[in-house]
Protein 1
Amino acid sequence: MSSAESTAQDDRLPTAPFPDGWYFVTGREALRKQTLIEKTWLGQEVVAWCDDEGTVCVADAYCPHLGSHLGPTTGGIVRDGCLVCPFHGFEYDVSGQCVATPSAPAPKNARLGLFETRVMNGMVFAWWSSAGQPPYFTLPDDTSDEDGWTPVGLRYFRLTTHPEYTTENSVDIAHLSHIHGYFDVHQIGAVTVDGAHLVSAFEFKRERSFLGRKFRFEVSAVTHLYGMGYSFVDITEHTVPLRSRFWVLATPLDGTYMELVLASQVQEAGRVNRSIVGLGFLPKRMRARLMNHMMLERQVKDVDQDLPVWNRKIFRPRPVLSSADGKIMLFRRYCTQFYPENQTGAGETLKTLARM
Ligand code: FES
Ligand SMILES: [Fe+2]
């Protein structure tokens, strides 16, 4: 490799590959169907399962006994809500405790390392901290019991990038018109930071072909970031009476690859004009699910446009910005609190950010 190539490679990551935060592990429905999931996640091998009461557990994938991998590809299974090791049959409950072995009392100190877990709107998240800190910020409340929303649909991408790059799109309003073709893009109000919570609101218009016709959509979007792994966008479509919740979930896998998950659910917010969407004849429930599917496919197209850039871009610590750019540097300062080497003390970091 030439020195120029190696410099470009070194510059690809802004800093540590695994910033602290809450990261997506799996969909709740996928966990229910597959029973036991294994995954490389933030440089760790993890397994996830749930017991008969629905309590979800995300744990270190290696058995405390003699180190077998506990995942299904090695032969791990879930029986009566407990994870059973394929090597000697030790059984672990969702608290991580070994509760039985086939031939001797369970050793009291046989415990799996657990990750703090949150289940929200059909998605399972777990807390990651490089320095082993307990969660120092929380995710918003689960809203899955609110009426009128479709189930969450999920789409998965695998790419070579860092969550800071994909999440930076939340404030990079200039790219919305250039790469995605949106127009009349306006930032609404100030981008605000309150500890780990960043809010950015904007409006835009876009044209899309739909059932063979071209439609213009007017959209308001409020993005809420909670770290680099969790980005939530509250979207109101003004042309079609539709609200949608949209998540962009960036999860570093092994230091090279990152998983990007798009999640979406919609709610009809009024009477659907059949001349606009051509779906007025469908039962409301079916129409909402179809519209969620179409919204997701539209977002997939947007991500397909971003992917070639994300897969190869480098980190510019001092980017040369224009007056059309969004609050890129504010976002960069916001991100520093999630890198352990910057944590002179979480309280001090949060105070500094509150002054920005
Ligand atoms: S290595 Fe898991 S039971 Fe022995
Ligand atoms: Fe984008």
Protein 2
Amino acid sequence: MPPRIDWAAYLRRFHREHPGITEDLLAGARRDDVGTAYTWMTAALAEHPGRVIDVACGSAPLRPLFDKADAYLGVDVSRSELARAQLEQRGPLARASVMALPLSDGFADAVMCSMAIMLFEPIEDGLFEIARVLRSGGTFVTIRPVSWPVLLADARIGTALLRGLHRMPALPQRLTRRAFARMQADAGLTVVADHALRFGYPLETHTDAQRVVDALYLPRVSEQRRRDAVERLARHCGRGMQVPVSIRRTVSVRNRVASGT
Ligand SMILES: C[S@@+](CC[C@H](N)C(=O)[O-])C[C@H]1O[C@@H](n2cnc3c(N)ncnc32)[C@H](O)[C@@H]1O
């Protein structure tokens, strides 16, 4: 058995070395019908969403989409990610873990969590904390990477990546729909919508290929293999070429809390 991955240490280093890399990829991955995964995510909320907490905000790419919120707060553990968010003049921001949000019970009308729910260990504790800060009837929206849907034409890109890396990108948790819904139910959240879409990131230049590989969590992959994956991917560069970025959006509602409990 290979040694266990120390995900906490890996993620700390990864986000220190690549602040904003998730935004760099996701902001460029689009669909004609919904735009980016970020605009798709915020479309799940009302036009005036009230007080919004962006948990694990990273470089806070959601911030510009919340100009009509009564209040926005981005929370993340990574100093480097928060520094990049600040550079973009996005805020307010707080450095904190999802496991201990600096907010009172029921403070938020909405909690957003983009591309991070699968990183929380233990995820159940993170969900309880998110449910705690949400008011009754408040909305929780997550997006996370998934391997489906893809197009038949995407197989060439997937094969090029796999041949270079020799293994699939890793994540601390692979959440099935059912398991995620059950965990949320235990925390007091009811899933009301759940859907996956394929976005396409343009693969036109060598820099695009580099960005795709840089955005992947690859704790067991050597530098040489990463470089090989970039070169193999770059061979497919061209007008109209895309790397598939499949994303699942889950929308949930905080259950009514009986008064006095
Ligand atoms: C893949 S990035 C997503 C960033 C941003 N939400 C986006 O979509 O571009 C994951 C983020 O989760 C943050 N993170 C990981 N574990 C966390 C925790 N326990 N509490 C708060 N943030 C965490 C990382 O520092 C990183 O910024």
Protein 3
Amino acid sequence: MKKLVRKNILKVTPYKAGKPIEETKRELGLKKVIKLASNENSLGASPKALAAIRKAVTAVNRYPDSQGFYLKRKLADKFSLVPENIVLGNGSDELIDIIIKTFVEDREEVLTADITFLEYEIISRVNGRRVSTVPLKNFRFDLREMKKQITGKTKLIFIANPNNPTGTYVPKNELVGFIKDLPAHVLVVLDEAYDTFIDVPDFPRGTELFKNNNLIVMRTFSKAYGLAGLRIGYAVGDEVLTAYMERVRQPFNVNLLAQAAAAAALDDDDFLLKTGKSVLEGKYYLYDALRSMGISYVPSVANFILVDTARNGAGVFQSMLKEGVIVRDMQQYGLNNYVRVTIGTRRENEKFIEAFKKVLNKK
Ligand SMILES: Cc1ncc(COP(=O)(O)O)c(C=O)c1O
């Protein structure tokens, strides 16, 4: 049977998603489980989005708006763009696929970091494209080294800013310097999945940088807006580039409820503020608690923290499951001593620390 499968698919390592709550309850016979594994919004979804879903649900007998007219217009207004600068996707995951299919020829290559969002590499390989990676430096994208690694074959460069799973970021001056004198055959994709949690002044905003540059920005409604289950994200780029991406995407790639919810969520400033405040408070609570346990971590500008357990991270992950706390095991990223924890509600963070202390035998 295997002979029927394309050669590049045989070599693909599947993406391992965060373990679901129900599965963990079932497998371990637990009543209460908290999930801090997929960088979701632990406050829930935007209430305005939920109201819009309720209103839109009776229209699901109709196909969604193939052009995403209303949502694109709202996004364009928000960032002072035109709707033609925007492509909607079934999450950023789908946009990664659309971008690779639109721009990377058979013989061309994708360049990214060795420890970053795994889907860049997986989707490239599924599409039969080669990927080169550059090691992070102090847990950060090393743009200087990446520039050195660009060859005549390099077509796309994926930069996650902030990076997942490290939570680190590339400052504005570094990014601007990097894109300024790139060879003309190279396109940069800036993945800003966590752009709403930033608490530093020198973070670059891709929507302000893409004009006159070979740059596409990706954003998602999965994180701060709490719509991960609906699957919706968007890409911003030059109209010439986005027009070709529109040819590649499926006509009804973003469902009707997702479009309605995302448009409403964009108006939900209260929810965004509440989320931002909760993440920041949670972050400083977790920093303090970890420090007092003598545990080191990578300072983060996102809604998650990479934590050095100083022992086998996979074992810690399993022991945490038994305590009813799902974190993310970092084996897939080659960070064997680490786990990544999403910043949750105050109670979730306390529960995490309580379980972590028990698992690591700390007081
Ligand atoms: C850096 C990064 N990009 C993209 C995604 C995927 O986002 P979406 O849910 O929009 O597919 C994630 C999700 O964890 C991520 O961490």
Protein 4
Amino acid sequence: MEKGFTMDQAMQEAARCLLCHDAPCACGCPAGTEPDRFIRKLRLRNLKCAARVIKENNVLGGVCAVVCPTCTLCAQGCTAAGLDRPIRIGEIQRFLVEWAWQTGFSPLRALPPDGRRIAIIGAGPAGLTCAAELARAGCKAVVFERQPEPGGMLRYGIPAHRMSVEFLGRELRDVTDLGVEIRCGTPMETSADIDRLLAEEKFDALFLATGAWGSLALDVPHRDSEDVYDALSFLMLAKTAPDGFAARVKGKVVAVIGGGDSAMDAAVAARRSGALDVYLLYRRSFSEMPGDPVEKQQAIAAGIHFVILSQPTDYVIENGRLAGIKLVRTRLDAPDASGRRRPVRMAGTEHELQADLAVEALGLQPPPAADAFGLPTDAQHRIVVRDAAGNTGRSMVLAGGDAVRGSSIVARAVHDGKMAARSILEELARRTGGTAPAVIDAPADRR
Ligand SMILES: Cc1cc2nc3c(=O)[nH]c(=O)nc-3n(C[C@H](O)[C@H](O)[C@H](O)COP(=O)(O)OP(=O)(O)OC[C@H]3O[C@@H](n4cnc5c(N)ncnc54)[C@H](O)[C@@H]3O)c2cc1C
Ligand code: SF4
């Protein structure tokens, strides 16, 4: 993981900020992190207040500082401010969060537990944010997590060279310090589990944030080989067994299929662990790749070979091992429903690429098992919610994050966790005739 800003660097960058009124950077942040406010506090050398602004708005402010695609969020807003180049908001934010950790300053406090108990399924950014907000307001928040460790895609998807496990662990401590209980290795799979948590275990409400862990697969005649991975399994191997991963890829030719962020992550992770050559195969042109421009540049710098306008048509499998990938060249036709120009196969351009390992990074969506929660779902197994708070139609059961949106970004999962927590608090207060504690600095609905 790259080093963050020093105090001097953070101050110098903050000094460039125009301290705009109605700051466009703040409008660009789905998590409601308010860069204009924390930069202003930093300019006044009030580091404690600056760190508090971040954490009160976004308990995962450190993670977001590192992984957010800022060029489409706050920094995009900042380009409207009239500077020659946008303020490096993510780096300033990371500096302030790390400064708080290093100096032992804890910006967040939780009200004493008052007997309200909320169950959360899934310890990713959506579930953890919801749990932290509820704990701050005096609820007992219990998170049920399938995996052995919390963090969701932050732990098992995003590669260590972009965010280390130690950095994530430090941020998760800010969540558990509020009294949030995380029960790892406890999957909740069905409507019967939801019934049990609400009826027998007497939780007052439930937030479902199980993410999008189902991988789309290439539709080809032959793919039955242990050398063909989906990107998530490949990246999980790199995160959970780095030595085994390195042994698997060292000296190999790896072909990654896809043009999004997971494809870049898988390609760079393979290259950094010693792959001889890594090809990134994409059926449209470079500019149409959905991946973050910064990550694309980093992949180029890492030596990834971009093979654009090429469509895989099948794998070449010999005695169960991958020997290569069959490809055909494409050309771009009129835009399709996605607004991007449609790739059309060019007859007579069929060829083969020798490869030892293939990684399919074709997109993620909730797995079919998500339908078993008994809540309305769409054709992509996403839970269908009725409003911006994530109400599902079942009383006191809300949902958010990638489980609702499909594969998205951390800041939007944080947004959903905050909105669900606020809705739960309001509904519980309404039922007891009280008012929701004003602990949550509620975000505007910036979807
Ligand atoms: C390779 C990769 C790279 C990414 N890079 C970025 C990036 O740079 N920037 C960015 O903003 N976003 C990035 N994302 C997207 C981001 O990680 C997700 O949008 C975000 O994590 C979604 O949060 P979530 O809480 O909804 O779901 P998740 O993070 O998926 O968390 C869901 C949690 O629920 C658990 N769970 C699932 N089913 C059950 C069950 N039945 N019972 C109990 N627990 C269950 C899972 O184990 C998981 O811990 C990336 C994603 C991937 C895959
Ligand atoms: S938009 Fe840019 S210049 Fe204006 S307050 Fe935000 S970071 Fe500062």
